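Structure ticket #2291
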Amino acid sequence: MSRIRHLQAAIPAEVIQRIFAFIHPSEANKYKSLCRYIYTCLSDERFAVLNLTFFVSPSSESSDLADLNQMWLTTNHAHSRVYARFCLKEMHRIDWQHQNLHGRIPQALGALYQLSTLQLDHNQLSGPIPAEIGSLSNLNNINLSNNKFSGSIPAEICKLRRLRILNLSNNKLTGSIPETLRNLQELHLLQLSDCLLSGPIPVSICDLAKLNIFTCANNRISGMIPANIGNLTQLQYLGLAGNEIEGDVPDSLSTLPSLSMLFLNDNRLTGGSLSQKLLHSLKLWDVSNNAKVFSIE
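Resolution: structure written out below.
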């Protein structure tokens, strides 16, 4: 302890920060383990600003920032917050697919107010989807599919009134599909397949008049197909396969004028009918492996 005090008295924090400022941020933070005083110096936002100044410039290409993008997703310290302000705050798109990114989306995401597209699909990201995502009122495209996100679908997503695409499929998400998705009146695509979701399909889904694609296949969805699913007059693809859905197929399903692909297979449906008119309009359909064979009218 006396050595640390001696170091603190002999070398001001500003000097320590300048010494380490020339080391790449992904490496500089490793030196925090040297001692408590160094940890305090390098955890200060003033150091993060100084450090990033040497490695980030207005002319930096996205490829040059790949390591820093990874750091932003794997840490939640001062560098993460400052990097969001330095490099990401004015961004309209984040397209970081297939980059083998690990870690969690930091809370600093909420500061990226200009963001309209957030595509982080096909990575190894984990943890919960941060509630701060609901602050990004300009978002119209969210694709977080094919990761390892866990926890429930944050209700804050339902504040994003401009959202047109929401793809959360192939994650470890649990809980139910939020009723408040009805707020997303611009939504065209809703993909929630291959997660661990449970509970019924919210009746409010049928209020999404512009919905073209809805799939929540291979979950633990139970209950019945909403009777007013016929309200989705723009629906082209309905994928509910591989769940625990029961009861009759509602008559209104056969009235969907735009439906071209229908997958109800591998459920517990016990009856209902599909019209000849619907079947003639379908390009692909599968209703096999249910509790009862469907009738055709």
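Closing remark: Residues 169 and 192 are 4 Å apart (CA to CA).
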